[in-house]
Specification:
- The protein has about 775 residues and is an alpha/beta fold.
- Among the domains are: about 200 residues, no CATH class; about 270 residues, no CATH class.
- The protein is built from 29 helices and 17 strands.
- Strand 12, helix 25 and strand 13 form a beta-alpha-beta unit.
- Helix 7 crosses helix 8, helix 7 crosses helix 10 and helix 17 crosses helix 18.
Length: about 775
């Protein structure tokens, strides 16, 4: 049950190569099955509780989708929605995108014609358009007050507040006990309810839905087992027949029962992940600590002689190929600390790096590091970094664990954190995380502070009156106005996040995800309705380096050196520096910039970060939760935040991209890698419980000679200094320009875009330009 039936290493390599080619050829899974399943479940349970309709929809999805097994596969199963050209995958999720089910929706009709559904099923789906009793169309959030609408219109912030497709579930529970045991847990909770107790009525509804969902999940493996046996009966090749029979045996066991071998563990993990995405879409639903999930199974197989290292490596490659999709950021981590404080590195940690290197496909693999991380792990990780592609990247336990402790997370849970999607920190299987719940444009807040709360681009009074800039007598006066704008935006952000969760409590319960979240079954509540142990919202701060550079420039050039007046500065900003280029050059070249080891400007950056973290930390979410700050911009530093921010005193022109996360503004970190890391280390990463994020651009020439060793030393220094997170791009600007001009020839270059890697040719042109402009350190 553990050893892949591969005759030689060469045969294993050929098998993986064939699978890799098939994955890169394009999508295999047609769209439509989940759409049909949720429509049928909705019609069959019309008038019943929404949570039970959603549970029935998940069970129906498992029932309806075809169990396909492909040649060469050792790990089977696929997502229930595809990526066919021209198909909007959102149609598979009418429960989350109810506009598709509006009366006469022509887009649904056009999209259905591209799916795998037969004509009768298409007609059935189309016949449900307008059934508001089946698909929630009511917004359960309160109407937005005028000040919220004004801030959104000006681009001060945006968000949604819901917990959707950003999670790390308790996959370890599925591996340990399986869905049969989870049904018994639900039955025990049901038996403890009191029919006469009014507070138990909503618990009854939740647990009944959970039971329906878990029964659907139990069927998953059995469907594949039956199909594997059918194919084995038709197989002429004895090796393939034996493989199929072993697949049947594996799927008989998992995910209904506990995994006993590494292959069963990987198969059960993959099935459980498919089910997560079937309920909640894929996007950034992530795996978590892959080496901690699989390490014990690997050790047991090796000790029993069921498997060797080569066989385990092949199984990991099969999982990696399953996880590969054109965009989705399904994050995995290795290394870090155990809950008891020991180093967590194990054999699977190294195999994960090797599988990534040899396949060259996985876009999201991170290494958790700390002061006692093995040098061998850092060496292996840096060797992989030097090859380009942007993986792995590094999360620092020395910063993240204290940040979580400061939010009241107990030490054992804090040490067991995992990463969602790009860089979002969560406590796996215990959290309703609401990652990237809302995003605040700090640079826009500074722009408002310079104009007494008025947005000069739209003419909207988007913030409070904090005083005319012409009356500021010092940088501290500017700071106080800026802080007032940020604090106003924070209150609006809290409204957006809490309103979004209020809506989700009514509109989008997540039954399956709740089953894999402590303490939802014990409390009889959905994860978004107070069932989870932790309920927090993670929120992003965008434009921090620009704000630091801008305030420092005003401090030095306007107030201290009086090289220009506030009136001259405001005039230059209003003209977007047109006709006053000398003013822009003065701002750009005479005032120091963040990222160059200048304590003065770095102190402003640290103050900006600490103020936002403390401001959000003073506010509360539902069920006593808190706001955790991401010092992370994703792609929003380009659009919408950069595009909706006017000229700034750092010399940036209107509508240009803002700095990525806490990296220096593109092209401004000119003093080398060490100087940049010194600036980065001055930020209060220990306050950013949601994570920080910095991309370091390295020229390939960096790795000539002793470059790898120097990077390891720099990484160890950054770990000790408490830098929260680092990502590395290894590519020259010249090569990227070639790829931009000739994507057919050079476009397969993989770059670190934000919290994920992507083929450069698939990145939008404005973002390509931004990546090219970022400094490529050669020393």
């Amino acid at each position: 049950m553990g050893q892949p039936l591969t005759e030689t290493a060469a045969a294993a390599a050929e098998r993986v190569a064939r699978l890799r080619s098939r994955v890169l050829e394009g999508p295999q899974t047609p769209t439509g099955w989940r759409l049909l399943a949720f429509c049928r479940a909705g019609a069959e349970h019309a008038g019943g509780p929404l949570i039970q309709r959603r549970a029935a929809g998940l069970a129906r999805t498992v029932e309806l989708f075809p169990a396909r097994l492909y040649d060469d596969e050792l790990i089977v199963g696929e997502h229930h929605f595809g990526e066919e050209p021209g198909v909007n995958g959102a149609i598979d999720f009418p429960d989350m995108n109810p506009h598709f089910m509006a009366p006469g929706c022509e887009e649904l009709e056009a999209q259905l014609a591209l799916t795998a559904l037969v004509e009768a099923d298409r007609a059935f789906v189309l016949g449900l358009r307008g059934r508001t009793d089946l698909f929630v169309t009511t917004n359960h959030a309160p109407e937005k007050p005028a000040e919220v609408l004004a801030a959104e219109e000006a681009g001060v912030l945006f968000g949604w507040g819901v917990s959707l497709n950003h999670s790390v579930r308790d996959f370890g529970k599925v591996l340990r006990v399986g869905f049969d045991a989870m049904e018994a847990e639900i039955d025990a909770a049901l038996a403890g309810l009191r029919l006469e107790a009014p507070e138990d009525l909503p618990r009854l509804s939740f647990l009944q839905a959970a039971k329906a969902a878990v029964q659907g999940c139990q069927v998953m493996g059995r469907k594949y087992a039956a199909e594997a046996r059918r194919l084995a009966g038709e197989a002429e090749d004895p090796i393939r027949r034996a493989e199929l029979l072993e697949t049947a045996e594996v799927c008989d066991q998992v995910p209904a029962g506990p995994a006993r071998t590494l292959r069963e563990a990987i198969q059960s993990l993959w099935f459980a992940h498919i089910l997560t995405c079937a309920e909640d879409h894929i996007n950034a639903n992530s795996i978590g600590r892959i080496d901690q999930l699989l390490g014990a199974y690997y050790d047991a197989d090796i000790a029993a002689g069921r498997l060797d290292e080569a066989g385990a490596l092949e199984l990991l490659k099969h999982l990696w190929l399953k996880l590969w999709r054109a965009y989705d950021v399904q994050q995995m981590q290795i290394g870090g600390l155990t809950p008891t404080g020991d180093d967590a590195t194990n054999a699977v940690s190294y195999l994960a790096l090797r599988a990534t290197e040899e396949l060259g496909l996985v876009r999201c693999l991170a290494v958790r590091v700390h002061r006692r991380s093995p040098r061998a792990l850092l060496q292996r990780a840096v060797e992989l970094v030097s090859r380009g592609g942007g993986v792995p990247f590094f999360f620092n336990d020395e910063a993240i664990v204290p940040a979580l402790l400061d939010k009241g997370i107990p030490l054992e849970d804090a040490r067991d954190y995992a990463i969602i999607g790009c860089v979002e920190v969560t406590i796996p299987g215990r959290t309703s995380p609401h990652a990237v719940s809302h995003q605040t444009n700090l640079a826009k807040c500074l722009e408002l502070a310079l104009h007494d709360g008025l947005d000069p681009l739209t003419g909207v009074q988007a913030g409070p009156h904090t005083g005319p800039a012409l009356e500021f007598g010092s940088a501290e006066d500017l700071w106080q106005a800026y802080a007032g704008q940020v604090e106003h935006a924070a209150r609006i952000g809290a409204f957006i996040s809490n309103s979004g969760q209020l809506h989700q409590m009514e509109a989008w319960p997540l039954v399956y995800c709740s089953m894999l979240t402590d303490d939802c079954i014990a409390r009889g509540r959905d994860m978004n309705a107070g069932g989870a142990v932790y309920n927090y919202h993670s929120v992003s701060a965008i434009g921090l380096p620009n704000v630091a550079d801008a305030i420092h420039a005003v401090d030095r050039l306007v107030f201290r050196e009086q090289a220009l007046s506030m009136s001259e500065l405001l005039d230059a900003l209003s003209r977007n520096f047109e006709g006053v280029e000398p003013v822009r050059r003065l701002l750009l070249n005479r005032a120091e910039k963040y990222g160059n080891d200048c304590p003065e400007v770095d102190a402003w950056a640290a103050r900006v970060a600490a103020h936002f973290c403390d401001t959000m930390g003073s506010l509360r979410t539902w069920f006593g939760g808190s706001f955790h700050v991401h010092l992370f911009s994703f792609l929003w530093n380009v659009e919408p935040c950069g595009a909706r921010t006017g000229a700034l005193p750092d010399g940036r022109r209107a509508h240009e991209p803002l700095a990525y996360s806490v990296s220096a503004t593109a092209g401004r970190d000119r003093e080398g890698l060490t100087a940049f890391l010194n600036s980065l280390a001055r930020l209060p990463h220990h306050k950013a419980a949601g994570s920080s994020s910095a991309i370091v651009e390295l020229s390939p020439s960096f790795f000539r000679g002793q470059g790898r060793g120097k990077l390891i030393e720099a990484l160890e220094t950054a770990i000790a200094a408490g830098v929260g997170q680092l990502q590395f791009n290894v590519v020259s600007a010249e090569r990227l320009r070639q790829a931009q001009e000739d994507p057919e020839r050079f476009g397969n270059i993989i770059v670190r875009v934000s919290g994920f890697s992507q083929e450069f040719r698939l990145v939008a042109r404005p973002l390509q330009d931004h990546i090219i402009e970022r400094t490529k350190h050669a020393q």
